[in-house]
Automatic annotation (TrEMBL):
Location in the cell: Cell envelope
Keywords: Coiled coil, Signal
Superkingdom assignment: Bacteria
SUPFAM superfamilies named among the record's database cross-references: HlyD-like secretion proteins (SSF111369)
Name of the protein in question: MexE family multidrug efflux RND transporter periplasmic adaptor subunit
Stretch forming the signal peptide: 1-30
Residues of the Multidrug resistance protein MdtA-like beta-barrel domain: 241-295
Recorded family membership: Belongs to the membrane fusion protein (MFP) (TC 8.A.1) family.
Matches recorded under Gene3D superfamilies: 2.40.30.170, 2.40.420.20, 2.40.50.100, Helix hairpin bin
Stretches assigned to coiled coil: 103-175
One Pfam family per UniProt: HH_MFP_RND
Broad class of where this protein is predominantly found: other
């Protein structure tokens, strides 16, 4: 019994030594660590007007496929691929010789018909005198009058043929129907083109230019409630001014105005198509470019604004960390809006009198105490605040 007891004491003593060693090598307990330092601030509260951004694409106001109105062989190409043209500029010429010959033939037919009318008029005049003296029957007079009427109808027919021949000759010169930029020529010299069928090239207008974009159903319903009516088009462009940015621009600078909203929402996508029109004097905006349009999203109201870096994520929620009176952190879900003056608008979740963490979000979690260092946010953010 004494040997067993002695062995047990040795084992217990060894265990106590090991535990003491391990306890000495471990750091202090978590509750003994100092509160993590964080930067806190009050949200910026001021009058704001929100704007919403949507993605869209530039499209020409007018675009035309250039086709010939008469058949024939391409004789001349009178423009440079990609050039800017004015209405009436000559683009293509179809071989005019067959149509000039048809015009000359129609002119000769008209002259012949006119000569027959002159002769028939003389016959009718002589028959009129003879009928008065009783030297000609009424039947002969009627026949000569009928001949005159037929000759006059032939003149009208010949005139119509001549007019058609003139039009065909005129149509051999294919001119620009609108002002704009030409594409490349799709047929070469000597090719046969079919009337109203073969596409020779195409032209798109450049100034002004349209911008089409889709608005989701939720935003559309919100716009309907605005006193300004952001998607209500008007002949007065100042009522619905917009700004558009191309994909290489950080901020929109191209001014325009809304001039069209579709009459129904698309069932498949739940969006409605809208259009803005912009001046494009320098032709820098090209049809087909993507862009971002900024439109009025709210009336003026007292907004609560926080830095973008003060907003965190908790699963599918956006949150901010609020510092209580005892420096304890609590989690506050929020619904964010658009960017205004470098800040993010908080539409739901904050009243504006809270103290929130703006720097050091990675060091905080709900329920812990922090060492807050208060700062004052400027009315307009000059730079993004890093964690």
């Amino acid at each position: 019994m004494r040997q067993v007891t002695g062995t047990g004491r040795q084992i217990a003593w060894s265990a106590l030594v090991v535990l003491a060693f391990l306890g000495a090598s471990q750091p202090g307990r978590a509750q003994d660590a100092p509160p993590p330092p964080v930067t806190v601030a009050k949200p910026v509260v001021k009058d704001v007007v929100e704007y919403d951004d949507f993605i869209g694409r530039f499209e020409p106001v007018d675009q035309v496929d250039i086709r010939a109105r008469v058949s024939g062989y391409v004789d001349k190409i009178n423009f440079t691929d990609g050039s800017v043209v004015k209405p009436g500029d000559l683009l293509f010429t179809i071989d005019q010789r067959p149509y000039q010959a048809a015009l000359d033939e129609a002119q000769a037919s008209l002259e012949s018909a006119k000569a027959r009318v002159d002769f028939a008029q003389g016959d009718v005049a002589r028959a009129e005198n003879l009928r008065k003296s009783g030297n000609i029957t009424g039947q002969i007079y009627d026949e000569r009058a009928q001949t005159l009427a037929t000759a006059q109808a032939d003149v009208n027919r010949a005139q119509a043929t001549l007019n058609r021949a003139k039009l065909d000759l005129q149509f051999t010169e294919i001119r620009a129907p609108i002002a704009g930029r030409m594409s490349r020529h799709l047929v070469s010299l000597g090719n046969l083109v079919n009337a109203n069928d073969t596409v020779l090239s195409n032209i798109v207008s450049m100034d002004p230019i349209n911008f089409y974009f889709d608005v989701d159903e939720r935003s559309f319903l919100a716009y309907q409630k605005l006193s300004t009516g952001s998607l209500r088009t008007s002949n007065d462009g100042a009522l619905n001014e917009v700004l558009v940015a191309t994909s290489d621009e950080n901020e929109p600078t191209h001014k325009g105005h809304l001039d069209f909203t579709d009459n129904r929402l698309d069932n498949a996508s739940g969006t409605i198509r809208a259009r803005a029109i912009l001046d494009n004097k320098d032709l820098s905006l090209v049809p087909g470019l993507f862009g971002r349009i900024r439109i009025l999203g709210s009336d003026k109201y007292k907004g609560v604004l926080v830095p973008e870096d003060a907003i965190g994520s908790d699963q599918d929620r956006r949150v901010v960390y609020v510092v209580g009176a005892d420096n304890t952190i609590s989690l506050q879900p929020v619904r964010v809006g658009s960017r205004v003056d470098g800040y993010r608008v908080i539409r739901v979740g904050l009243k504006g009198d809270e103290t929130i963490v703006v720097n050091g979000l990675m060091r905080v979690r709900p329920g812990i105490k922090v060492d807050p260092k208060l700062m004052t946010l400027p009315p307009v953010a000059v730079a993004s605040m890093a964690n």
